[in-house]
Amino acid sequence: MELNASLSLVRPEVILSFSALGLLLLAAWREQAGRLISILAIVALGAAAAFVISFMMNGTNLSAFDGLLVNDSFGNFSKILIFIAAAISLMIAPRFLENAGAMRAEYPVLILLSCVGMGVMVSATDLISLYIGLELQSLSAYVLASFVRSDGRSAEAGLKYFVLGALASGMLLFGASLVYGFAGSTSFAAIGAAMDAEVGLGLIFGIVFILSGLAFKISAAPFHMWTPDVYEGAPTPVTAFFASAPKVAAIALTIRIVLEAFGSQILVWQQIIIAVALMSIIIGAVGAIGQQNLKRLMAYSSINNVGFILIGLATGTEQGISAMLVYLVIYVAMTLGSFICLMQLKDKDGGYREEFADIAGLSKTRPPLAAALAIFMFSLAGFPPLFGFWGKLVVFNAAVAAGLLPLAVIGITASVIGAFYYLKVVKVMYFDDAADVIVDSDDKVLVWTGGLLAAANSPLGYFAIPALGLWTAYAARALF
Amino acid sequence: MNAPDIPVLSIMLAIPVVAAAICLFVRAELARIIALSATLLNLLLGVVLWINYDPAGAQWQFTESATLFGPIGWRLGIDGISLTLIMLSVFLMPICIGASWVSIQKRIGEYMAAFLLMETLMIGVFAAQDLLLFYIFFEAGLIPMYLIIGIWGGQDRIYASYKFFLYTLLGSLVMLIAMLWMIQFAGTADIPTLLNTDFPAEAQKWLWLAFFASFAVKMPMWPVHTWLPDAHVQAPTAGSVILAGVLLKMGGYGFLRFSLPMFPEASADFIPLVFGLSMVAVVYTSLVALVQQDMKKLIAYSSVAHMAIVTVGLFTFNQQGIEGAIIVMLSHGLVSGALFLCVGVIYDRLHTREISRYGGLSVNMPKYALLFMLFTMASVGLPGTSGFIGEFLSLAGAYKVSTWATFIATTGIILGAGYMLYLYRRIAFGPQVNADAAAMSDVNGREMWLLAPIAVVVLWMGVYPETFLAPIRRDVATIVARIERAAPVGDSKLKLVDPTTARYRVVHGPEKNLAEGSH
């Protein structure tokens, strides 16, 4: 009975696991059915999301498997965002991968397995389940990064990601074992209780190692160095996936472990988070300036944005967490949209371009694409009136409310450095002479999803503010 | 009072946005016409606003309120100060479109769209009654202006566009943090409520500095003015007109709307800073203007000098000074806009801004020389033109606070006469040394239509300023009453009221307007 109740709480993950296995079987017989399997995978994600939404509506807040997992609105909110991001990654991929000769059925299956992992990550309330979810997600991601086997860069990206990811997992495990040793339990609740009593040096070391491992997963400085290489090397739809869904999952996981396990000792972790946040903002901004490759630029941009998101965590307040979730939703829309635009940069021979020189004067040859990319860039930079501004605003508002004025001032001032390279993209597209290498995109899916995301990032997005505020506040409340 | 159920301000904000969207999709000729009609329609609505504005009515009129965007309240409303600045914006916009009619030949649809968006954002800045809404409008103006300078600008347009964007952005971001703090302190982002909130004196200092960082750059005050000459020189003519005419006024408006009434004690404490920077600006930028070889640069530096008189006037804490500062803002918006148009007229013919390439234009371009002279005189502050009224009032106000500051600021007028007359002499008088300049044709009908309306308003403001003072008088009085408790003690030892002349004093105020209406 206990098992049944637990299983019913993880129905979305169960559906995804069985779909992945079923689709894998199907793929064994129909090797070239990549498109069909992608569509079925999207259906499976939809079914899983339907259950998540019903949990969310019912306000479920129950723990499963003797406290290994929890089904609460915070996890469910993250899952919805993850599933949407994964579904978009599935939708945009087929034509790109077909071009690269790599549209195999494993792609959707790996994404589904990764989603199972992420589902476990965001609902984990125990170091063991946390690690299982994280590894399931990571292993799928390593394979996805090297998915285009014929491309040397892709293989290199996969290998780099694997080696450095394994290092990070090692650090995380080392930290987890220290915490277990000093707190006497792997459960977040028990660790939290142990930390109420006293925090010894061993426990602090454990926390530092866990946070370092997680910083790697969310590509926060100073553990960001893999990001540009992997983002550049991986096939663009996979990069879009990396920059969206796993980032949401890892950030949600970080929020949960920090608040539920270490929450009582805010002074212990707050300084670490503040340092990581500011470093990410500054390194992400400065590192991007010299880049010539647009995918590397986006990698630094994501480091930069993670820094802003972490400001919300540094507050440790309910308002801060809610602000982070708002920022995450907008960030997913911005980053997916930017990559969708990059995927449309195709020359007349059908090759994909990703250098600055290729988009010179794009606004003259392909005005709608240039306008969409400009919207995403201004939005990522957080300029009003684009919707990205709202994400930054709520995060800084939370920081001001929590009295972290110096953090807010330094963070917002550093965003001027970031503004420089976002402006550079717009400058190259709008002010420079036309290079005229990019032809019209023949992929209607990209055009439409890109257009919709651009509309969401335009000032029209402001209409979503009340609903977004309501849902994120509801999700954040589950943690307090 | 107009029927309050018609959201005039929202309509004025919506018209340019809709027109901008259409402009992106139609061919060039149609885009020009759509842009012109939209801006003229907005001018018409502006006149409706002006006529229906009741100077003796409620402080905030035409108010609207909607909660579409959660914490960002869509609250609009204007007082007299906003009204005059909105009028300035909608008045200059059709002129800008007209000025770009033939000189802009590439990507016309996008150009018109950028200008129309600018118009919405400018009106939004002056009409917003919500702090966050104000910030969005204030900051969003950077994007279209960045594109205008970068796409349609001159040789060094890219450097200028970056400099413009990053300078002003850095200033405003700190202000955003201050705004968030204020909203949390007061529990509301409603500007009329915040205007009557007393912030603790210690916090005021920091908030004032944060706002100062933004407005001083926008104004621009010395030494953060260096973006302005670059932006002006590189921007297309209409871009310069909007930049000088309206965007610079946002700084002054900010001081008036936020810094003074919200942080009176801090404002009083920082008077020496503001006066000091303004005095340096008046003298230094006037001297710099004197040696410029580029017409647009000269006018750009003169703008910095004029805006310094605005800051002096604003921080006098008395009715005269603040009224004067507002009139200088309006006058400078018209006059410097017109001067940039005058430069544009001859630039379109000879494609150079070099002063020495012209000369003796009064011979072959008499009508042009006449109009140019009028605007030169208005810029110098000749009585009978708008410049005189504003400068006289603000300096008279400043005299009550600091005689020394007034003395130095007044030298700016003498220096102003110097560089403006010197410019005029080199362009309009003297021998016609350049054959191509001597062969230029006089202003045509279109250019006449651009310059003549401004000339009329400049003279109107100079001869009968009451039209423009009446709507702002009560609002300035409200601000003065609010900041009176912190008003500085002046060094001019004025007699309070001399009983022998008291009976000749004209009592200004709403009553007088009522009396006038009954005649």
Features:
heterodimer; A: 480 residues; mainly alpha; two-stranded antiparallel ribbon; 20 helices; 2 strands; globular; B: mainly alpha; two-stranded antiparallel sheet; 24 helices; disordered C terminus
Short recap of the structure:
Chain A has 480 residues and is an all-alpha fold. Helix content of chain A is 76%, strand content 1%. Chain A has a domain at 279-480.
Polypeptide structure, described:
The complex is a heterodimer of chains A (480) and B (519). Chain A has 480 residues and is mostly helical. In chain A, 76% of the residues lie in helices and 1% in strands. In chain A, strand 1 and strand 2 form a beta hairpin. The longest helix of chain A is centred in the middle third of the chain and has 32 residues. Chain A is globular. By secondary structure, chain B is mainly alpha-helical. Chain B has a domain of 203 residues. Chain B contains 24 helices and two strands. Chain B is globular, with a radius of gyration of 22 Å. Chains A and B meet through helix 17, helix 18 and helix 20 of A and strand 1, helix 5, helix 6 and helix 7 of B.
Write the layout of secondary structure elements.
The complex is a heterodimer of chains A (480) and B (519).
Chain A (H helix, E strand, L loop, with lengths): L1 H8 L1 H19 L4 H25 L3 E3 L4 E3 L1 H27 L6 H18 L3 H19 L6 H32 L4 H10 L3 H17 L8 H8 L2 H26 L4 H24 L4 H22 L2 H26 L18 H4 L1 H15 L6 H14 L3 H26 L13 H14 L7 H13 L3
Antiparallel strand pairs in A: 1-2
Chain B lengths: L7 H16 L4 H25 L8 E9 L2 E7 L1 H20 L8 H20 L3 H10 L1 H11 L4 H30 L4 H5 L5 H18 L8 H8 L2 H26 L1 H6 L1 H20 L4 H20 L4 H32 L10 H4 L1 H15 L5 H16 L1 H26 L6 H4 L6 H19 L2 H18 L15 H4 L7 H9 L1
Antiparallel strand pairs in B: 1-2
Helix pairs in contact in B: 1-2, 1-4, 2-3, 2-4, 3-4, 3-11, 3-15, 3-21, 3-22, 4-5, 4-6, 4-11, 5-7, 6-7, 7-9, 7-10, 9-11, 10-14, 11-14, 11-15, 13-14, 13-19, 14-15, 14-18, 14-19, 15-17, 15-18, 15-21, 15-22, 17-19, 17-21, 18-19, 18-21
